[in-house]
Amino acid sequence: MTGSAPAETAPLFAPADIEVLTMGRSSVDLYPQQLNVPLADVATFEKSIGGSPTNVAVAAARLGRRAALINRVGDDAFGAFIRSGMRNFGVDDSFIATDPDLLTPVVFCELMPPEEPSIYFYREPRGPDMNLSVEDLPMDLVESVPLFWTAGSRFAEEPSRTATYEALRRRHRRSHTVIDLDYRPMFWESADSAAEAISPVIDLCTVAVGNRDECEIAVGTRDPDLAADAMLERGVEMAIVKKGAEGVLVATADSRTSVPPILVDVVCGLGAGDAFGGSLCHGLLAGWEPEEIVRRANAAGAIVAGRLMCSDAMPTPQEIDEALK
Length: 325
Description:
The protein has helices spanning 52-62, 77-88, 139-144, 160-171, 191-198, 212-219, 224-233, 272-286, 290-305, 317-324, and strands at residues 20-23, 27-32, 45-50, 67-74, 91-99, 106-110, 118-122, 147-151, 177-180, 207-211, 238-242, 248-251, 256-259. It is of the alpha/beta class. It has a single domain (15-324), classed as Ribokinase (UDP-N-acetylmuramoyl-L-alanine:D-glutamate ligase).
């Protein structure tokens, strides 16, 4: 299946100027305007652009990076909403194809409790992002862009799995090639099938980031230090393990630090990890030390956890500076 070209709009950036290229799903997220209310009883919602790699591109753009997204959306009003929204956020949409057969996904969240919201994906029979193929990829840019970011969910179905593997292979483990381990059980037949697909990706990346559950899928252990050791042994230059209330472990061949969390009153737990990811991209490109990268990424995540939305909530550098005070 071949996607159609996006609408005739001038690219925001020349390919050579793009600093961050993410690959993965987009959705229209619907957020309840009533907190701690069952989804069935919610009266009003507000929509926003969602999808983890999409949010990461937005977060990086908010921090001043020239970002672009590779994805597919449906040939529908929500697909148009995502395209225009990405451009408004300063993210180049030139590599978002239109799938002629599938609808743009919609996601509802239930904020009960806000710290651990339930997520309901409407992606039947599948999301158009899973139809991403090798032919959709701007391979010259994939090979040369300073930072390429993708997610474990890319490997759940074909042809997305083959396309993403090929993108990573063509990178030849160039810095910075980042995998967000991003294990979402609803995308997989089983944890074993996810492990079989995601684990080999470690060997193709220079940076890996995930929580305890995701590390168990990728390298077979929930222990943060053992997980970091396993990823470093397989050639990753920087391993980042999120430990929840215990903070974040960042490990390289030369250093290992556990960065404490920044505590906030949580409004919505969604999007915090994507804000972390966008700030991680910014810090890697800036050449900061690992501890500083994670310290600022933690602050970015905390800011978004204290807000309702995802993409719309991504912080500016000034807001991160203020949070760190």
